[in-house]
Give the backbone structure.
Amino acid sequence: MELTDKMQAFVMHCGEMGSRWGFNRTIGQMYALLLISEEPLSANELSQTLHISRGNVSMGIKELNSWQLIATRHKPGDRKEYYQPAGSIWQMANRVFEQRRKREIDPTLSLLRDNLLDEPRDQQERYAQQRLLEIHDLLEMITEWASELQRLSPEKLSTLMKLGAGVSKILDFRDKLSPKDRTES
Amino acid sequence: MELTDKMQAFVMHCGEMGSRWGFNRTIGQMYALLLISEEPLSANELSQTLHISRGNVSMGIKELNSWQLIATRHKPGDRKEYYQPAGSIWQMANRVFEQRRKREIDPTLSLLRDNLLDEPRDQQERYAQQRLLEIHDLLEMITEWASELQRLSPEKLSTLMKLGAGVSKILDFRDKLSPKDRTES
DNA sequence: AGGTACTTTCAGAACATAATGAACATTTGG
DNA sequence: CCAAATGTTCATTATGTTCTGAAAGTACCT
């Protein structure tokens, strides 16, 4: 498969950013390429277009699958597998957030929980636990909030985001109108 | 400096998570240690407690400074520098988000912008640009939304987050009450 | 000036991660 | 059943990242 310069540039950029986004260079390139190509691509096409080994592609596919970022397609009379991005850009972003939360936050949260179960033995530990508690509460709030957002429909999310700073006004508004109605949950 | 087992465990955990959070093992450990110790620590104390070289500590300090995560303190009659976490946990989380946004999103956003300035030359490019546009809009919305949130006071943010799913209700509420008032910005 | 207490830098070693490609496994059509 | 086409695995190689420690730098004393 032939790429125009601009497409090349995008694919290579995604490769460079790959590791920052939680996967590696080739996986970034592979996903970028699948995203911008109208037709699903086979493993061989990926390998040839990106100049990476067939084995590497296979491992990359496996990883992208585990992130639920691609779907497999078949063409009639062809036993090759063809790959294409799974779902909309929104869904993709959701998946990436979720996966990263699992890797970057959940383990820490569970360590903190365990730690906070024990009584502190001295002043030093008392101080430390206080700090851990703050982090714990923050992380917990972030994960809960994130999963609430994920549960919202894309339209509502979009409304909420476009609202931007307006959110602040709405909060004031609500407090003035119905102070009893404050959330307790 | 002596650490209890639990404090050890936390520090080591942060080391392991370090690279997932955007810095490296020793930097994660250093920051964790500073967070849970009541007194500011000197570079030597960090080096000895964590069993890492003095040079490594120096580089770590530099990096933590660039993330604006630590503050330098001095004790009277002592020329050593002592380090402690800068600001509250909230501020720390803010800083980390911001830094990561700069590294993980901004470069892509600017590549996409450049790319979208050019006219597509053929069908293949037309399709690709369509996809890039979607990503661009998504990323832009995320960064704008994120900076709005950062601008909110911690109290309001907290209210908003505790609200959780309630956000959805408020959106409905607003739409019913004052449909003309929809945000245009 | 010279000495001491501290910090920073950076080349190279140690370690960690990713990529290759040949061997192995699987599926399908004949 | 065999052979061809495709997919997967994994030991080895290649690349990238982090850490060390010795040397150089800085600031402050007397």
Q: What stands out?
A: Chain B touches chain A through 63 residues (CB under 8 Å). The first strand of chain B starts at residue 41 and ends at 42.
